[in-house]
Amino acid sequence: MSVATLTSKGQTTIPKDVRERLGLKPGDKIRFMVDDNGRAFLIPLTVTVKQLRGMLPKPERPATIEEMDEAIAQGIVERYLGSTPRS
Question: Which 3 state secondary structure label does DSSP give 51?
């Protein structure tokens, strides 16, 4: 088990064995999440686009430009106005 010390500025160094196990390199981004029980999780954000290939099923048909525009517009309305547009 690795141990790290927190500085007065709230900084710490991720121990070498943890960095190696997670494949972290200088410049990589990581996300910290804390659950309701106070457990903290460190999640490397180092996945490449190539590694994501095949995660989603292929669509039955490609979306049209008009469908994409409508989806974008609906997302903007939902995000900033908190409701869905009425057709």
Answer: helix
For 37-84, the pLDDT digits (tens) are 899 988 888 777 777 788 788 888 989 999 999 999 999 988 888 765
Class of domain 1-55: mainly beta
* Four-CA torsion 48, 30, 18, 7, nearest 10 degrees: 160
User: In the numeric block, which tokens belong to residue 76?
Assistant: 């903007």
Per-residue pLDDT tens digits for 4-50: 999 999 999 999 999 998 889 999 999 998 998 899 988 888 777 77
What are the tokens at 18?
A: 């943890």
Q: Where are the domains of the chain?
A: 1-55, 57-81
User: Which region holds residue 29: left if phi is over 0, alpha if psi is between -120 and 50, else beta?
Assistant: beta
- Please provide residue 80's backbone torsions phi and psi, each rounded to the nearest 5 degrees: -100, -20
